[in-house]
Specification:
Length: 438
């Protein structure tokens, strides 16, 4: 299967807009690490791909953690003495600190200020804040809104509930020829924020839909879960099956206009790390590859020392490195159909390599075989170097001793994977190679 077959029927311009439409549909929902917002989000994703929805009860012990109480919210506001809502949750769900406990009381601004968060450096933006493991409450305002508040009494209401309930996550499993699995994870716990991480959610959903229409070698498992506690919960419940995971990616922040960034797995030299590096190198775009660090998204859990799974994190501009991060400016205008489509295309190229990265053995290792006789000779147009098809055939023959796989040969030869793969297909068809068996 060459790459064009692998990406069959993908109109990148159309899919970029389709991602953006899904993001726009999910954008208004108030999500958190538990609650109805996550369920509603998974319900919408379930219209695109078959999703198993798992509910894990509050209080369940998952490694060193405990599944928290479920949080839901109906309404919240700050009203002035005339009864006018100066802050209204219905205008932006970012106005309430996520996981705020219920509040209804009157207080003067002096006291209320202790519970207000703003961003003076961006006076029109609302910050995003949460308080998952410390029961408190708060409001997030634009600095401009804050400056308009007077030193007077306000009525403060957060109509929320923090009760025994469930942690919800979604899982889409696509069975391939092999039991070996590729794990693709994204977090679904942020409220109205687009790049972090409705971009990752939409790309994961459409990757699953695309792969469901194809026959794949690997089995693919897509996880849509709240960050940290969600991946910890999934790992705790699936520990016995983790040895099946051979490759994986955490998808986050994939829709901004910045360049691609890949954070390597903790192992650093895993096949997924090599595949992503290869795709980015041949993208003809700037990119950055960074080493693993125990800070960021759910790769922290997947790559914790007790698991050390071969899972990296694909992003564009990383978390915390764009000024819109965790603010109301991470909105529908900040994510672009072209960036989303470009990230999706890179994912397709990465998994095309993973699917096709085979190790071969040269069946005619004593001197070069007669290539012209087998239709494998391309005359050179220049004096200096043979055509790339010829070079690829020579590299594959020379380096196929059952040790290096096609991706390693491509990197050694300085030739793009798909060209090396085409050469290997031709040599295999001519009986000059065989697939290495274990
Ligand atoms: Zn975030």
């Amino acid at each position: 299967m060459n790459f064009n077959d692998f990406k069959k029927d993908v109109d990148l311009d159309a899919v970029g807009h389709e991602f953006h439409r899904l993001i726009a549909q999910l954008y208004p929902i108030c999500r958190s690490i538990t609650g109805n917002g996550v369920r509603e989000t998974l319900g919408i994703i379930n219209k695109h791909i078959p999703l198993d929805i798992h509910n894990v009860p509050t209080g369940e012990k998952v490694f060193d953690w405990i599944v928290p109480k479920e949080w839901n919210i109906k309404d919240a506001y700050i009203k002035d003495l005339k009864g006018k809502k100066v802050i209204d949750f219905k205008e932006s769900n970012l106005h309430v600190v996520s996981y705020s406990k219920p509040v209804k009381k009157k207080m003067f601004l002096k006291e209320l200020k202790e519970h207000i968060f703003t961003l003076p450096e961006h006076p029109n933006w609302i910050p995003y804040r949460n308080s998952y493991y410390n029961e408190t409450w708060g409001f997030c305002l634009s600095y401009k809104q804050f400056l308009e508040m007077k030193d007077e009494e306000y009525e403060v209401c957060i109509d929320s509930s923090l009760e025994e309930g469930e942690l919800t996550y979604g899982e889409c499993f696509l069975e391939g020829e092999r039991q070996d699995e590729v794990l693709i994870s994204c977090h679904v716990c942020h409220p109205s924020l687009c790049n972090d991480n409705l971009s990752g959610v939409s790309i994961a959903a459409f990757l699953a839909r695309h792969f469901a229409s194809m026959s794949m070698k690997y089995s693919y498992r897509f996880l849509f879960h709240p960050t940290t506690i969600g991946s910890i919960t999934w790992l705790a419940l699936n520990e016995a099956k983790l040895n099946k995971i051979k490759h994986g990616l955490v998808l986050a922040c994939l829709g901004d206009p910045g360049m691609s960034t890949y954070k390597k797995s903790r192992r650093g030299g895993a096949e997924i790390d090599q595949a992503v590096a290869h795709v980015l190198k041949y993208s003809n775009q700037n990119f950055e590859i960074i080493d693993f660090s125990p800070f960021g998204y759910d790769e922290r859990q997947f790559c914790s020392p007790g698991f050390d799974l071969p899972i990296g994190c694909l992003m564009r501009t990383p978390n915390g490195k764009f000024k819109e991060y965790h603010t109301s400016a991470d909105n529908l205008d900040f994510v672009h159909p072209t960036s989303l489509a470009d990230s999706f295309l890179k994912c397709l190229k990465i998994f095309h390599i993973i699917e096709n990265n085979t190790t071969y053995v040269n069946l005619n290792p004593k001197c070069e075989p007669r290539l012209g006789y087998r239709g494998l000779y391309w005359p050179s147009n220049t004096q200096h170097e043979p055509p790339i098809e010829q070079l690829s055939v020579l590299w594959v023959l020379n380096l196929s001793e059952g040790k290096l796989n096609l991706l390693e040969i491509a990197d050694r030869a300085g030739i793009e994977f798909d060209i090396i793969k085409t050469a290997a297909d031709k040599l295999l068809a001519q009986g000059l190679l065989k697939i290495k068996t274990k």
